[in-house]
Specification:
heterodimer; A: mainly alpha; B: alpha+beta; 4-stranded antiparallel sheet; 7 helices
């Protein structure tokens, strides 16, 4: 039997804000509540990368990501005074972005999908060659998942949120997050050769 | 911890968000379960692959300027406007001439007014870039870069199938409507793709 050795990577991931960063975010939010635009710009810059990354996974178009980020920070600007600290600032902001992104995407789909030319990174999610690298396969596998499952994985594996935090962000029960994660993992195992497991290994 | 519970717990062990208690229980299970150990390894591969995915990033500054313009447009206040350049003597002469011409035009209008009824009714004011007196409703509010020339603005509006219905306001906001055959959504996308457009938002009806 091969003994299990905990990997050094099993620590809180860097994208998840440390307490000092959380405190900085909270201070910026207080200034934003006083209509301080410099504070808004600072918070905007601090979150732009992780929100872009998160949103581009949902729809690989920079115009979409920019629109959702600006809608998100418009809400932050208008509602900063209402933030009571029931969750971390990052969880609150991610939750706003999540809802706006899904709403925008559903609206777009109702009026018709955008032209292929608009999908800037469309080639990146096409099925890779057999010898394609792991990242290509992962991008392809993720693109086949339903939005909620894909974003659950992104929140957990890129942004480092816990199951409970993802439940807060997505405004759904913890059980739903677990179910989404379970199904996402199962589908990816069937899609990704590098994960090459067999889904029948799970016993109840 | 049974197998199914352990299986569900693996992602939170892998991303480091599991509590100490959960982690200890799961590691105990992993010691005896090869399937879960393989799954931990697979999920680590997935997480590392997701974290190292290259991303073409855009600088946040330009995007933030659009949000800034939106806030200003909403408040009706534009702060930090660039100061107007000092007027040269030649400019003052031209302005003086313009005032004289304006006075002459006002005089001519007054004469015409005294002569009889005027068929102006309630005709709306239209700018030079208005395509025609086409009835329609405003669909977009936009703010353009200060250095956008009139010619460039007209070309952009033609390409977007838009016409100016009102503006610029004191806050430099234009109210635009689609011309006949124009599509409001497509027009909005065309505007937003243009580098000289600081702000473009649909008008809710």
């Amino acid at each position: 039997m091969q003994p299990f050795a905990p990997a050094p990577a099993l620590t809180r991931m860097p994208q998840s804000p440390a307490p000092s960063l959380e405190s900085q975010d909270a201070q910026l939010l207080q200034r934003i509540a006083q209509q301080d635009k410099r504070a808004l710009e600072a918070l905007y810059s601090a979150y732009h990368r992780r929100l872009s990354r998160f949103l581009l996974r949902l729809a690989p178009r920079h115009d979409f990501a920019e629109e959702v980020i600006n809608d998100t920070f418009w809400v932050v600007w208008c509602k900063a005074a209402d933030f009571r600290g029931a969750s971390r600032v990052s969880t609150w902001i991610l939750g706003i972005a999540y809802r706006h992104a899904l709403h925008a995407l559903r609206q777009e789909r109702r009026v018709g999908a955008p032209a292929v030319a608009e999908q800037e990174d469309a080639a990146g999610i096409a099925e890779p060659e057999d010898d394609g690298d792991t990242q290509d396969w992962i991008a392809h596998g993720l693109s086949l998942l339903p939005d909620e499952q894909r974003l659950t994985l992104e929140l957990a594996y890129f942004l480092g949120y816990s199951c409970e935090e993802i439940a807060t962000i997505t405004e759904c029960p913890v059980g739903t997050v677990k179910a989404r994660m379970f199904h996402a993992r199962e589908k990816l195992r069937l899609t990704l050769p590098s994960l090459g497991g067999n889904s029948s290994v799970i016993r109840s | 911890m049974n197998h199914r519970t352990a299986w569900d717990q693996i992602p939170w062990l892998v991303n480091g968000s599991a509590s100490e208690k959960e982690r200890a229980a799961l590691e105990q299970h992993l010691h005896d379960c090869a399937e879960c150990r393989a799954e931990v390894s697979a999920q680590r591969t997935l997480m590392q692959g997701m974290q190292t995915r290259p991303l073409v990033e855009k600088m946040p500054h330009a995007s933030f300027q659009k949000l800034h313009a939106r806030i200003d447009a909403d408040r009706g206040v534009v702060q930090n406007r660039p100061q107007r350049p000092r007027r040269s003597p030649r400019m003052v002469q031209w302005l003086s001439a313009a005032v004289v011409i304006q006075a002459l035009l006002v005089g001519t209008l007054l004469v015409a007014l005294l002569r009889g009824p005027v068929a102006v009714d309630d005709a709306p004011y239209r700018t030079v870039s208005s395509a025609a007196a086409i009835p329609g409703k405003a669909t977009v509010r936009a703010v353009f870069a200060m250095d956008l020339t009139l010619g460039e603005l007209q070309a952009l509006l033609e390409r977007s199938h838009l016409r100016i219905m009102d503006g610029p306001s004191a806050d430099a906001v234009y109210t635009l409507g689609t011309t006949r055959g124009g599509d409001a959504r497509q027009a909005l996308l065309t505007l937003r793709a243009h580098p000289a457009v600081r702000f473009a938002e649909p008008i809710a009806h």
